[in-house]
Amino acid sequence: MSTKIDHIGIVVHDIRQALKVYHQALGLSLQEIVEVPDQQVRVAFLLLGESNVELVQPTSDDTGIAKFLDRRGEGIHHICVEVDDIEAALARLEAHEVQLIDKVPRQGAHGRVAFIHPKGAHGVLIELVEHEG
Ligand code: ZN
User: Fold this and answer.
1) Spacing, Cα 78 to ligand 1 middle (Å)
2) pTM of the predicted model, to two decimals?
3) What is the Å distance from ligand 1's center to 43 Cα?
4) Which of 24, 57, 89, 128 is deepest in the core (most CB within 10 A)?
5) Ligand 1 centre from 93 Cα, in Å?
6) How many whole angstroms separate alpha carbon 57 and alpha carbon 1?
7) What pLDDT, on the 0 to 100 scale, is given for residue 22?
8) What is the mean pLDDT of the chain?
9) If you measure from the C-alpha of residue 54 to the centroid of ligand 1, how many angstroms do you get, rounded to a whole number?
10) CA of 126 to the centre of ligand 1 (A)
11) CB within 5 A of ion ligand 1: which residues?
12) Ligand 1 centroid vs 84 CA: distance in angstroms?
């Protein structure tokens, strides 16, 4: 059902500044920078083995991730697990009474995504992704 860690999400104030460390200094290969209007964020994906580092910069002040950045500062925000079938994964989590943020998948940068509430996952915000194609 779950195949691998798709990416680790790191929330930052300024993607350009963060790329100086993650891309230029650490040497991770920059895949792309994309806007995700649904989630009001700009994200950069950097390849790391079979997974990615996702730098996330909020583009509005009133989203959950903007408030997280305000309250907690920059740092690891979520871990994303790739799944084959996101509806099946959500149904299974609901059957186990795990608290979800999204009961229905929404459109992410690279496919449909849904978030598990940190209260349901021992303090970790987990994103599920089902890739297109
Ligand atoms: Zn993510």
Assistant:
1) 7
2) 0.90
3) 9
4) 128
5) 19
6) 30
7) 98
8) 95
9) 6
10) 9
11) 9, 54, 80, 127
12) 16
**What's the Cα-to-Cα distance from 62 to each of 8, 37, 41, rounded to whole Å?**
23, 13, 11
> What is the reported pLDDT for 48?
95
Beta bridge pairs of residue 9: 54, 78
Distance from residue 25's CA to the centre of ligand 1 (Å): 22
CA distances from 63 to 22, 37, 38, 59, 68 (A): 25, 12, 11, 9, 9
**Centroid of ligand 1 to alpha carbon of 7 (angstroms):** 6
Q: Report the C-alpha gap between 108 and 75 in whole angstroms.
A: 20
Whether pLDDT at 133 is above 80: no
Q: What is the pLDDT of residue 74?
A: 98
Torsion of CA 20, 125, 63, 7, to 10 degrees: 40
Q: What span, in angstroms and rounded, lies between the C-alpha atoms of 29 and 47?
A: 5
The DSSP symbol for 18 reads H
